[in-house]
Design goal:
single chain; alpha/beta; two-stranded antiparallel sheet
Length: 166
């Protein structure tokens, strides 16, 4: 599975480093990177859902926190990348999935992405499990009718010789 990514940072060197890190990890595709948060906003308003947005905080015209509030619904995962530790609390107030303090290593970057994608896989597995979290039984009172029973709706079961009550 390839994850789609967007990066917004007013420093070209940071965008290039992020692009290199994503390329080295393999299963991430950087669709676009933006030096201007206004251009990023225009792009995100016109595109479909993105898997990851990497967002710097201190940028001209609009801060990354302001932009994050606007575009948070456009991404599954928001990762704040900043050189300023004092914004960490505010980053999580905009529902960021992670806060990477610059400069960060490839190892730290990979660890954060692995943690996030692992959580995503667990949620997807759980949703798949919940889709199949039932069974059918034959209703004695209604001939040939099957009743769908969800496991989480069962309160008690009782067996009396050849009969089962659920």
């Amino acid at each position: 599975m390839k994850f789609t990514c967007i990066a917004v940072d007013d420093d070209q060197a940071n965008l290039e480093l992020l692009s290199d890190y994503l390329a080295s990890l393999g299963n991430y595709q950087l669709l676009k990177s933006f030096l201007d948060p206004i251009q990023a906003l225009k792009y995100l308003n016109s595109c479909k859902q993105i898997d990851f947005i990497f967002m710097d905080i201190e940028m001209p015209k609009m801060s990354g926190l302001e932009l994050s509030k606007i575009v948070r619904s456009k991404t599954h995962h928001l990762i704040i990348t900043s050189g300023h530790p004092q914004y960490a609390v505010e980053a999580f107030e905009v529902d960021a999935d992670a806060y990477l303090l610059k400069p960060f290593s490839l190892g730290r970057f990979a660890l954060v992405l692995d943690r996030i994608t692992s959580q995503t896989r667990h949620v997807m597995e759980r949703e798949n499990y919940e889709e199949n979290d039932f069974f059918f039984i034959k209703n004695k009172n209604e001939k040939s009718n099957l009743v769908k029973v969800k496991f989480d709706e069962i309160i008690a079961m009782e067996s009396i010789q050849n009969y089962v009550s659920i």
